[in-house]
Design brief:
Elements (H helix, E strand, L loop, with lengths): L19 E3 L5 E2 L5 E9 L4 E5 L5 E5 L2 E7 L13 E8 L2 E8 L86 H18 L32 H9 L6 H12 L5 H10 L6 E3 L5 E5 L24 E7 L8 E6 L3 E5 L6 E10 L2 E2 L6 E4 L12 E5 L4 E4 L12 E6 L9 E6 L3 E4 L7 E10 L2 E2 L6 E4 L12 E5 L3 E5 L13 E8 L2 E9 L5 E4 L6 E10 L2 E2 L6 E4 L12 E3 L7 E4 L11 E10 L7 E6 L3 E4 L7 E10 L2 E2 L6 E4 L12 E2 L8 E4 L13 E7 L6 E7 L3 E4 L7 E10 L2 E2 L6 E4 L12 E6 L2 E5 L12 E7 L6 E6 L3 E5 L6 E10 L2 E2 L6 E4 L11 E3 L2 H5 L15 E5 L9 E7 L6 E3 L4 E4 L7 E10 L2 E5 L3 E4 L10 E6 L4 E5 L12 E7 L5 E7 L3 E4 L7 E10 L2 E5 L3 E4 L12 E4 L5 E4 L11 E9 ...
Antiparallel strand pairs: 1-3, 2-3, 3-6, 4-5, 7-8, 9-10, 10-13, 11-12, 11-14, 14-15, 14-16, 17-18, 18-21, 19-20, 19-22, 22-23, 22-24, 25-26, 26-29, 27-28, 27-30, 30-31, 30-32, 33-34, 34-37, 35-36, 35-38, 38-39, 38-40, 41-42, 42-45, 43-44, 43-46, 46-47, 46-48, 49-50, 50-53, 51-52, 51-54, 54-55, ...
Protein name: Fibronectin type-III domain-containing protein
Pfam family, one: fn3
Keywords: Membrane, Transmembrane, Transmembrane helix
Length: 1221
């Protein structure tokens, strides 16, 4: 669309914002709506511009063309920029243009592309006025069948690139040389397939393809399409810079550029790839032969390994795939930008479509398996000169009836200066046969002795030393004719308030080929005023006026190059009247009523040049966009709005009508009508069935709310025997429940509603009859005991309350709060059986009818007579602990092997206290005991089973026996074992008993070990099946007492005799390593820590010394904590250690463990620095020893564990790096 924008696909529909928009500065006034601008939309060749016409249809205009558009507010409409393009606004000769350019202009190799025809410049006499698009004739070409794509369109709509002249004086030398020529890149099928295969391998190697979201490449960026550069001759200015950038752009495959970038940005290659890339970089510079004006042949040799490396077989790269060569050229020097021209497996290539007489640099680059070597050294060559390019057609500068003055511009000379031009014409015959009318070096020529108003065809060619160019396109030019006759008077086509649309006829005597201009004149107040001069290419002219309803006198005259005609006759034309102004805002007259109000208004100040015919009043209910309705139309200045709703908001407005049309709407008047009480409600209705003492009522909102929301409702009720009404409900709800009514009675209800204006009228009466009620409460029933387990209950029927009693319900229970229904039926009595003797019972009764269940009577208490006791339910065996707490005297030699302690749950005495129990033990004599629940049966056989049952007796007799329970005596308990001490220390004692193993093998026999405390009491230490136990946390030199007991399932055996064991004394604690300080060369001082006395026993110390590798010898023994060692031998190492010794009063001494060893090394030169860091620093220049402590077992184990962990980590790393990867 811009001078250098790549052509879009021919099947693409463009939006109106897409082409170039050029806006001339002078604004215009249209219909008095403000400043407007005419926008020139330039459509380039091969492109399309789509607009929407007034009828709603879309019209597609093909280029080259300039479409005038009208901007309503004087601003350039927004520009839609396609993906991959940017917009650039430039100003050229007062005209703003918006250029849509690619984001990154790419250089095109060797020459300029086929050129587009520039649009014809506006005529010198073309006025600034441009008709509205609705008044324009349709364009010459329209797109049809766009849905089908490119294949559905005719061939003339597909983008074509026609060659055109290039004028060197208008194109900078930086854009192309003076010998420039179009250059197109063509590739054969084999080259294209090789390129596609290389790109596919490169994508597979780098793991990526084309980005899905990237915009599609334009036709210029395709490898199989010729590169194009649009150069419009005759259009200079700031657009030239874009032309130069377009000439320098590079046409290459996007995939290839992506592959190169990815290879350049990839990580370090492996050794094999590096060797292959180095081999590809050894390619020699190419050779150029067969140089012609527009082509040359380039050949090269395949890359080879240097001879010095031929003998080495290590890392010898081999080509797994055929080599591919990329030939690129540059026209901007050896270090300039290169463009790919050939890609294939051959060792030679023919470069075509080059510029004549142009300096080129060519280089070759080898590729294999997705890798690229460095380009070879560039070789320069210069193409030969040739004949000039075809020039542009000649242009008409001026002309008369008998002559034409032609002018043209020089084309590209292609390296050889143009010497002559050949101008041919058809002599006005129109036969297509051309004769030469001029031959020479000039760039203009005047053709004379021509016929008036005739057409002549011309064509032009250029010639230099290399030959003659092709002829330009044929151009048709016309000669002028005589002075035109006066035109017919202008006719009124259309009239407006501030404008008139006129048309006039072309003079009949003037031929169509003659260029005729027109002058439109207007007489106003006796003077002739020249308003506008315009060249008319069509039969419609428009003139705009600015006074409404005014008489104008107009005439028109025609002229051409020969002179001006007489004016036409004067015509009288009148513009239409304008619309009137809006009336003043309406006002309220009087008081606003609930259903009406009176409004008035004033006429507008401006009537638009015609009388007001009527006023129209519109009314809208509410303030939120309700539709407006017309309520009055007439000449009056006031109106009464009736039929309104109370309590509603209304809006009203006025406009007037005249011959000029409808005025704007006046300001809106807001009116609020007052509210009234609500209207009469509908009677309330019954919800569900009426109950005996309650009814549920519901109602709806009144149909008329009086203009205010209903806030409250009131229900009034009148009784069955009284006409007096009383209010039973008042509130905002739409239902209520009325209680406290009598069963089977008729009541009447009335409803009224209220809002902020008050209560409305009562509704009509609504009568409701209540249903029957449940029976009344029964009297307390009476009870009669027939036996200790049978009672007769009787009752009386209560008042039925409007419905006969159908049944009675009797509840019976032992507690007043837990009674259950035991009878339901019409009878008035019931016999209760299966009761417990001497038991309290409660009963109550209620009556039931069809209306419901009556309330229960009062509860009645009943006590059944006494009887013999019940049977004993359970018998238990007493434990020994429970037996000891029993109060009855028990044989002190009680043993569970010969006795059975039993207990039982006392049964129910049935109202008479139990005085004794009878215990039956099978074949033995029964045992009678008192009123107790425990008893010990003695003199039984060990490990023997007995069948026992018990019977309770009271004053009324003996109760039944209980169930028989089988009980068994236990076997005899075991004897205690012998206890002995097997190991001891100052804090622990290890005890052992019995002959079994240390750990128990069964749970049949277990032991309990007791230890005596200071108070003589024994505390249990251990209980279990083991035969050993270790007693810890004891004091030294202390005596402890122990006893042991054995037990099994037969019971616990007797305790053993008391055993006494004593703990020995404890040795002193180990000391820390002593500190050694050298006093001089022959003496040193050894110090160690002091220990407190141990339970009154003093502590002394023993210091041992070892010289070299000899044995330790005692150097000191005493109570001091320091010792001076004298007579040290030079160049000898001394080792010291110390231990504490406890001096017992009545026992031998106890020595503790020795401390860690400390070493005193011999004095050396390098020992001074180390000794100064260890010593206290109080003495300078003296030598001190370094304490070397031996590692403990825990430290050695930790050190070994750390070494194994480090080795395991290293092995895992090696496996991960060398084996897995």
């Amino acid at each position: 669309m811009a001078d250098h924008t790549p052509p879009l696909e021919s099947g693409q529909l463009l939006s109106p914002e897409l082409p170039i928009l050029a806006s001339p500065p002078p604004p215009a006034m249209v219909n008095g709506e403000g400043p407007q601008q005419v926008i020139l939309v330039q459509v380039n060749p091969g492109e399309a511009f789509t607009i929407r016409r007034e009828d709603g249809q879309f019209q597609c205009i093909t280029g080259p063309a300039q479409v005038p558009m009208m901007s309503p507010n004087g601003s350039v409409p927004p520009i839609y920029v396609p993906p991959g393009y940017i917009s650039q606004i430039i100003e050229e000769n007062g005209v703003r243009r918006v250029l849509v350019l690619p984001q990154q202009p790419e250089f095109h190799p060797g020459g300029h592309s086929p050129l587009h025809h520039p649009p014809p410049p506006p005529h010198a006499h073309l006025p600034a006025f441009i008709p509205h698009p609705a008044m324009m004739p349709p364009p010459h070409h329209l797109y049809t069948g766009m849905a089908g794509g490119v294949g559905d369109m005719s061939s003339q709509y597909i983008s074509q690139y026609h060659p055109a002249h290039i004028y060197p004086e208008q194109v900078s030398t930086d854009s192309h040389s003076q010998h420039g020529r179009p250059s197109l890149v063509h590739r054969d099928d084999r080259t294209s397939k090789t390129h596609e295969r290389l790109q596919k391998k490169l994508k597979e190697r780098q793991g990526g393809g084309q980005v899905k979201d990237s915009p599609p490449s334009s036709p210029q960026k395709s490898c199989n399409s010729p590169p194009t550069v649009d150069i419009h001759n005759g259009i200079g200015g700031k657009g030239l810079e874009a032309e130069q950038g377009q000439l320098r752009h590079t046409v290459s495959s996007p995939d290839k550029q992506t592959g190169k970038r990815k290879i350049g940005e990839s990580a370090v290659l492996d050794k094999e790839a590096q060797a292959l890339q180095a081999l590809l970089s050894t390619i020699n510079k190419p050779e150029v032969s067969d140089i012609e004006a527009r082509g040359a042949t380039v050949s090269w040799s395949a890359p080879t390994k240097p001879e010095s490396e031929n003998d080495s077989k290590e890392d010898d790269p081999s080509f797994s795939e055929p080599l591919c060569y990329d030939v690129s050229i540059s026209i901007s020097g050896k270090d300039g930008k290169y463009q790919s021209m050939h890609c294939g497996e051959e060792l030679s290539a023919t470069l075509e479509l080059l510029r004549p007489a142009t300096d080129y640099h060519v280089r070759v680059q080898a590729m294999c398996s997705g890798l690229q070597g460095n380009p070879s050294e560039a070789v320069s060559f210069t193409t030969l000169s040739c004949e000039p390019d075809p020039p542009n057609p000649p242009k008409k500068i001026s002309g008369t009836k008998n002559s034409l003055l032609l002018q043209w511009k020089a084309p590209c000379d292609n390296g050889s200066k143009i010497q002559n031009y050949i101008l041919q014409w058809d002599e006005g015959k129109g036969t297509g046969v051309y004769e030469q009318c001029y031959y020479g070096p000039q760039k203009q020529y005047k053709v004379a002795k021509l016929s008036p108003a005739s057409r002549y065809s011309f064509r032009l060619a250029a010639k230099n030393d290399m030959g003659t160019s092709e002829f330009s396109e044929v151009v048709d030019l016309f000669t002028s004719c005589s002075v035109p006759l006066p035109p017919f008077p202008p006719e009124l086509e259309m009239a407006g308030v501030t404008w008139l649309c006129l048309k006039w006829q072309r003079p009949a005597s003037s031929p169509k080929e003659d260029d005729i201009f027109y002058i439109l004149e207007m007489e106003e107040e006796g003077s002739v005023c020249l308003l506008r001069e315009k060249r008319i290419n069509f039969l419609i002219g428009v003139y705009y006026l600015f006074i409404s309803a005014f008489l104008h006198l107009l005439q028109v005259a025609a002229y051409n190059s020969e002179g001006k005609s007489n004016p036409s006759q004067v015509v009288e034309l009148i513009t239409k009247p304008d619309i009137p102004g809006c009336p003043f805002k309406p006002v309220i007259r009087g008081r606003v009523l609930p259903n009406s109000f009176k409004m008035a208004w004033e006429p507008p100040k401006d009537d638009g040049g015609s009388e007001i015919t009527k006023y129209v009043v519109e009314l809208s209910e509410g303030t939120s966009g309700s539709p407006w309705g017309q309520v009055y139309s007439g000449p009056a200045l006031e109106h009464v709005c009736e039929g309104l709703k109370p309590g509603c908001s209304y809006q009203t407005r006025v406009y007037c009508m005249s011959e000029g049309g409808q005025s704007p709407l006046s300001e809106t008047l807001q009116v609020q009508t007052p509210a009234v009480p609500p209207g009469q409600c509908q009677p309330p209705r019954l919800v569900g069935k009426p109950k005996a003492r309650e009814v549920q009522l519901r109602w709806g909102v009144p149909q008329v709310d009086g203009g205010s929301p209903v806030s409250c409702y009131s229900i009034e009720m009148s009784g069955p025997q009284s006409e007096e009404s009383k209010e039973v409900y008042q509130g905002p709800e739409l239902d209520c429940s009325v209680g406290g009514l009598m069963p089977g009675k008729t009541y009447s209800f009335r409803l009224k509603a209220a809002n902020k204006a008050g209560f409305g009228p009562l509704s009509e009466r609504f009568e409701v009859t209540t249903g029957p009620g449940a029976p009344e409460q029964c009297k307390a029933p009476s009870t009669t005991c027939k036996s200790s387990s049978c009672v007769v209950v009787s009752w009386e029927a209560p008042p039925c309350n409007g419905a006969p009693v159908t049944e009675f319900r009797l509840e019976w229970g032992a507690a007043e709060g837990s009674m259950q229904i035991c009878y339901s039926g019409p009878g008035l009595s019931h016999e209760m059986k299966g009761l417990l003797p001497a038991t309290n019972y409660f009963c109550r009764v209620q009556a039931v009818n069809v209306a419901g269940v009556g309330p229960f009577s009062e509860a009645v208490f009943c006590l059944t007579p006494c009887t013999v006791p019940a049977a004993v339910s359970n018998i238990y065996v007493l434990k020994e602990s429970e037996l000891r707490s029993y109060d009855t005297p028990v044989d002190p030699v009680y043993s569970p092997s010969t006795c059975l302690g039993i207990c039982w749950d006392p049964p129910c005495d049935h109202g008479s206290e139990i005085n004794s129990y009878l215990i039956d033990i099978g074949e033995r004599q029964p045992i009678v005991v008192g009123p107790v629940t425990k008893h010990v049966i003695q003199n039984l056989q060990p490990d023997t089973s007995y069948r026992i049952r018990i019977q309770a007796l009271n004053s009324l007799g003996a109760g039944p026996f209980s169930h028989t329970f089988k009980l068994k005596t236990k076997p005899l308990p075991p004897q205690p074992p012998r206890l002995e001490c097997t190991a001891f220390s100052h804090q622990t004692l290890r005890l052992k008993w019995g002959d079994g193993p240390a750990k128990a093998t069964s749970d049949a026999l277990q032991y309990q070990l007791h230890m005596g405390d200071k108070n003589g009491r024994f505390i249990s230490l251990y209980k279990g099946p083991c035969h050993t136990h270790k007693v810890q946390r004891l004091n030294e030199s202390t005596s402890y007492t122990f006893r042991i007991q054995a037990f099994n399932e037969a019971g616990e055996g007797p305790f053993s005799n008391v055993y006494t064991f004593t703990t020995p004394r404890s040795p002193p604690a180990p000391l820390k390593a002593p500190k050694v300080e050298r006093l001089d060369d022959n003496s040193c001082e050894v110090t160690w820590e002091a220990l407190p006395p141990m339970k009154g026993d003093p502590v002394i110390y023993s210091l041992q010394c070892m010289i070299g590798n000899s044995d330790f010898k005692q150097a000191y023994k005493g109570s001091a904590t320091t010792f001076h060692v004298q007579n040290l031998q030079p160049n000898s190492d001394y080792r010291f250690r110390v231990c504490a010794i406890r001096q017992c009063q009545d026992a031998p001494e106890l020595s503790g463990p020795y401390s860690p060893t400390v070493t005193l090394s011999s004095q050396r030169n390098d020992a001074a620095l180390a000794s100064s860091a260890v010593s206290s620093g109080s003495r300078i220049g003296t030598e001190s020893t370094r304490a070397r402590q031996s590692l403990s077992d825990e430290q050695c184990a930790f050190l070994i564990l750390m070494v194994f962990a480090v080795i395991a980590i290293l092995i895992a790393f090696v496996i991960q790096y060398f084996v897995i990867k």
